[in-house]
């Protein structure tokens, strides 16, 4: 499990705290066309059912986890408009688990056992309690967001970022997962950063993630400034003043989106200028101007890191395809693009099975062979291995973008060449 998985897991826990106190070319016809000239009709013309489980109405908020679902649905709608898979439409069955374990189990029962979907796609569940049932049914879960440890625990689950863990029912290796220091290495090597601040709440999940960030920064030789605020009455002005005093180059955080906006506003008011206010893929969205409307200077120091191509990189053909198909959406996000990539992944798997029959087993076999899958260049090459021992180091590449008011999210270099061999640090999920 990499740092991106950990970020999503801890961020979800931190977000829950808020309850107690947000023109391109057309798709190539060859991608979607069913050409039946001179060929016999398909053996089975019944629709292919796929399921999408999303914590759409979770306590975190109505739009927090819907991006992957929206991207996947957009892909399947486009696919069906061009003939489906071997002449078969993809019928999407959606289920909102409400962000609870009970609701998640109900969704798994409905989709896997009642609807008999051939696969789950782009799962984004706050509490993936039904994961063991999915694994026991041998249903491939393709391109899910690893919020929690399920994708590093169970077979037949294939997270969007891959996994090196054994996946035999225990998280990671004997209950421990590992993440790298590539993000910290990047800012040190590429931007000369030496001092990094980590801001957290005085709450267990937030503080635990902050400690892991601190460990990674120290492993990369940073001077680390720790800032903790009271969750109920956070004094971000004091934090901002200290960031200025300490001369922080970077700011990382273990706080929710609302807290980040408040922190940025306080930084602007205090004149605390930094090289980068670093966020993650979940906050890599087109809503930055509104989210940080009171902090224009801090807003323009926002950087995001991830494992997929910037959704604003319309110079890339695969991104243009995604943007053309989703132009009707009010906002865009990196998670939408990753949901689109997950749907394409299922489509490639199902297409490989067309001659012999599109079954759960055949699709799962394709996924097990998915070494280096990129969804036409939208993802960094994804690996699924079952290493008997955790790696001490790993070569990891990064997709990096920074926000600029006049341009939006601007890619920083080639994600396939922004790579580092970094230590892997253990943690308990």
UniProtKB/TrEMBL annotation:
<feature type="region of interest" description="Disordered">
    <location>
        <begin position="28"/>
        <end position="48"/>
    </location>
</feature>
<feature type="domain" description="Leucine-binding protein">
    <location>
        <begin position="47"/>
        <end position="405"/>
    </location>
</feature>
<dbReference type="Pfam" id="PF13458">
    <property type="entry name" value="Peripla_BP_6"/>
</dbReference>
<protein>
    <recommendedName>
        <fullName>Leucine-binding protein domain-containing protein</fullName>
    </recommendedName>
</protein>
<comment type="similarity">
    <text>Belongs to the leucine-binding protein family.</text>
</comment>
<dbReference type="InterPro" id="IPR028082">
    <property type="entry name" value="Peripla_BP_I"/>
</dbReference>
<feature type="compositionally biased region" description="Basic and acidic residues">
    <location>
        <begin position="28"/>
        <end position="38"/>
    </location>
</feature>
<keyword id="KW-0732">Signal</keyword>
<dbReference type="InterPro" id="IPR028081">
    <property type="entry name" value="Leu-bd"/>
</dbReference>
<feature type="signal peptide">
    <location>
        <begin position="1"/>
        <end position="23"/>
    </location>
</feature>
């Amino acid at each position: 499990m990499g740092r991106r998985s950990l970020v999503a897991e801890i961020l979800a826990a931190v977000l829950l705290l808020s309850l107690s106190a947000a023109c391109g070319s057309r798709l190539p016809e060859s991608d979607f066309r069913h050409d039946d000239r001179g060929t016999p009709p398909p053996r089975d013309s019944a629709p292919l059912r796929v399921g999408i489980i999303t914590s759409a109405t979770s306590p975190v908020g109505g739009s927090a986890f819907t991006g992957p679902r929206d991207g996947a649905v957009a892909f399947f709608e486009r696919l069906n408009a061009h003939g489906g898979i071997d002449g078969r439409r993809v019928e999407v069955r959606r289920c909102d688990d409400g962000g609870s374990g009970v609701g998640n189990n109900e969704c798994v029962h409905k989709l896997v056992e009642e609807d008999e979907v051939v696969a789950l796609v782009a799962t984004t569940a706050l509490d993936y309690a039904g994961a063991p049932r999915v694994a026991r049914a041998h249903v491939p879960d393709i391109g899910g967001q690893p919020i929690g440890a399920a994708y590093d625990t169970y077979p037949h689950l294939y997270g969007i970022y891959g996994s090196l863990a054994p996946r035999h029912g225990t998280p990671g290796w004997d209950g421990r997962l590992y993440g790298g220091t590539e993000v910290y290495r990047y800012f040190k090597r590429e931007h000369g950063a030496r001092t990094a601040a980590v801001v957290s709440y005085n709450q267990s999940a937030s503080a635990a993630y902050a400690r892991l960030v601190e460990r990674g920064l120290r492993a990369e030789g940073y001077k680390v400034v720790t800032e903790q605020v009271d969750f109920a009455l956070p004094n971000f002005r004091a934090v901002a003043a200290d960031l200025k005093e300490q001369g922080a180059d970077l700011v990382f955080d273990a706080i929710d989106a609302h807290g980040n906006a408040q922190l940025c506003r306080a930084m602007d008011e205090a004149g605390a200028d930094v090289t980068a206010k670093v966020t993650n893929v979940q906050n890599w969205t087109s809503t930055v101007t509104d989210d940080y409307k009171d902090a224009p200077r801090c807003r323009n120091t926002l950087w995001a890191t991830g494992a997929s191509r910037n959704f604003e990189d319309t110079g890339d053909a695969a991104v243009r395809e995604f943007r053309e198909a989703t132009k009707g959406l009010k906002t865009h996000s990196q998670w939408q693009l990753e949901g689109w990539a997950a749907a394409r992944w299922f489509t490639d798997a199902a297409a490989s099975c067309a001659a012999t029959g599109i079954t759960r087993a055949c699709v799962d076999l394709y996924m097990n062979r998915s070494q280096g899958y990129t969804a036409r260049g939208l993802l960094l090459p994804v690996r699924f291995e079952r290493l008997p021992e955790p790696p001490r180091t790993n070569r990891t590449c990064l997709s990096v973008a920074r926000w600029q008011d006049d341009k939006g999210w601007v890619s920083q270099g080639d994600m396939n060449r922004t790579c580092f061999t970094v230590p892997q640090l253990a943690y308990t999920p």
